[in-house]
Amino acid sequence: MKVLQFPLARITIGFVLGLLLAFYLKPELTTIFGLLLISLLFLGISYFAQKNTFSTSFYFGLATYIASVFVGITTQIVHTDYYQKANYIHERSFFEKPHLLSLVIREKLKSTNFNDRYIALINHIDNKKCSGRILLNVRKNSLKYEFETGASLQVRGVPYENKPPNNPNQFDYSAYLEKKQIYAQLYADKKSITISPDYKKDIWYYSSKLRTSIIHNLQKSNFNKTELNVAIALIMGQKQDVSPEIIQDYQYAGAVHILSVSGLHVGFILLFISFLLKPIPNSPKGSFIKLTIILASLFSFALIAGLAPSVVRSVTMFSFVAIGQHLRRSVNIYHTILVSVFLILLFQPSFLFDVGFQLSYIALFFIIWFQPLLASIWSPKIKTFEYMWGILTVSFAAQIGTLPLSIYYFHQFPGLFFITNLAIIPLLSVLMILGVLVMVLAAFNFVPLFLSKPLEWGIYLLNKIINVIASFEQFIIRDIPLNIYLMVSSYLLILAAITWFKKPSYGKLMILLISIMTIQFSYIKTQWVNKNQKEWILFNFKKNTMVVTRDGKNVVLYAHDNVLKTAKSNSVLNSYLVANFSTLKGKEEIKNTAFFKDNKILILDSLGNYPKDIKPDIIIITQSPKINMDRMLHLLKPKVVVADVSNFKILQKHWKASCEKQKIPFHAVAEKGFFKLN
After folding, report:
1. pLDDT tens sequence across 219-228
2. Distance between CA 632 and CA 614 in Å, rounded?
3. Distance (Å, rounded) from C-alpha 341 to C-alpha 343?
4. S-S: 314 plus which of 33, 266, 522, 600, CB 3.0-4.6 Å?
5. How far apart, in whole angstroms, are the C-alpha atoms of residue 247 and residue 79?
6. How many CB atoms lie within 10 A of CB 634?
7. Torsion sign over Cα 526, 532, 538, 544
8. Are 166 and 140 in contact (CB under 8 A)?
C-alpha cells in the first residue's frame, strides 16, 4: 500500500490544511462551527449511502476530506487563546495604563543581557478573572534568585503589545510569540513584584522540581559547569544556560539539532531500554510487561525534559512503534509517523508552527524514504565501513530533506555536516545512555563518580570535536537567499527526482521535468519582481542614521563613517540584502538632501540648518538638532516628518505635538519601525 493510499494520510493532510487556514485567515467562530456541523452531516449521509451500496463512494471520500479540513480549523480555533473571551487581548484598557496582574510562572526562557525571561499565565487583571500567556521580563540583578515553575506572583506594570520588526526582513519576533499564543510582554523589577508563598502544583511544577533536583545534585558532585550545561541540553533539551559561543560552534558544525532532544535521542533511549529488557520472555505477559516499562520510561523522560515540543513528538512516535511491536504486527513506519503527527496536532496544534517540529518530521521522513536508496549504492563487506556508510547515508538523506527548509529559515549551510555526523554519532550514542543513567540516579540524590566523570569527559571531547570542525569557517556557506516559492519548488524537485530514481518511468520523468520548469519559473519570477522594485528605506539602527536605496539588485548605503566601515558585519543590512536577492554596490556619506522618484527629501543633522526655499516633501530629522519645529513646518510645509532613533525621546514628543497641530503625519522610527518609500 502506498503511503498516500492510507486513509489517515489524506485525512492528516486535510487536517493540517485546516490548521493553516484557521491560523492565517482567522475565520469567524460561529461560521466555522456551522460549516463543521454541515460537513459532519454530509459525512454521515455519504457513509450510510456507501454502506447500503457496498461500494467505495467518491462522495464519501470527498466528505471525509472536507470534514477533516473543518475539524482542523475547529481544532486550531479551540486551542487558540485569541478566541477565548476571557483572554486579556480583548481588554481595551490592557495596554493603556498600569494594572495589577496575578501570574503563575510556566516556563523559564533563556535570559538576555538585561532581563531574566519567563512565560507566565495570567489569572487575574485588577481582580478581574482573565486568561492568557504573557512574556515576563524581570530586570537582571533586581532579584537574587530565579522564579520556579508554578510560582505565583502579583506584578504591577503596563503591558506592551508585541511590535512588528523594527527593520525590513528581520526575524519577526512578534509573529514568533503569536504562534506560541503570547500577545504581550511585561517588564518588571523587584519593586513591582509581590511573591506569593503558594505554588500551582501541576504536572509542569513537578516536572520542573524533578529537573531542578537533578541539576542541583549534579552541581554538588562538582560536575564542570560548561559540560553540565551541555549535558542538560543533550539529555533534557534545556539549552537556556549553554553559552552563545558553544551554540555557535554547534551551528557552524551542523550539529545544533543534538542540543534539542529529538527522535535521535529518544531512539537511543528506546534501544537501550529494549536491550535491558531482553531477559524478559516474549510471552503475552512478558511482552505486556516490556511495553508497560518502555512506555513508563519514555513518558518519564518526557517529564524530566520539561514536556518540550521536540520531546513530546518523539516520545509519542516511538510509543506507537513500541505498541505496534507489542501487538506483534509489522509496524508500517509511515503510518506510525502519521498517527503521531495527527495526535500531537490534535492536542497541540501550535506545534505545527514550531521550526523544530517541521525539520524533525521532514528529516525522519527522508531518512525512512530516501536512505535505503543511498545505502543500496554500495554494500561494504567490512563491518566498520558498513557502519560508517550507514551514518553517512542517514546524514545525507536527512540533510537533503531539510536543506530547503533550513536555508529558508537560517540562510546558511554547514558544508562539513557529514564529517560532524561521522565524528559525533558514535560518541553521542554512548553519551546518551550514560547521561540518562546519571540523570536517573541524580534524581535519587546519588551521583556515582565512575559514571559522572566519564560523562563529563565525553561531553568535553564532544565540544572539542565540534569546535575543531566549526573552526573551518570557509566551509560554511552563509547568506543564501531563498523565498517561499523557491523553497516549495525545491521540494517538488527533490521529491520528483527521488521518486524517478527509485523506479524510473515515463510519467515520473515528465513530473521531474515539470518540477525543473517550476523551480526555473520561480527563480525567473523572483528575479523579475526584484529587478522592477525600487525603494528608499530609513532603518531603525542603534542610535545611528542608516539609509539604503535599492534599484533592483543594486543597493547603495548612505550613513556616517562609523556605520560605513562596519557594513560587512552589519546584520540588519545583511538580512535586507539576502531577503531581496541584492548586493551592496556602493557606500556613501549621508547628505542633507536626497531624491527618490517624485519625492524631495531634506535630512536635518545636529546643526539644524536648512534652506528656506527648498520645499521638501519629506523631512528626516537626525541627531537631535535644536530647531523651532513650528516655524520650520510653517515655512517648508512638508507632507511627512520622520524622526530616526538618533534623536532624544523628549524632543520627539515636542516635534510630534507640533506636527499634530498642523495636521502633518509624524513617523517616529523608534516607535513605528523603519520608514520606507517605494
Report:
1. 888 888 899 9
2. 11
3. 6
4. 266
5. 33
6. 11
7. positive
8. no
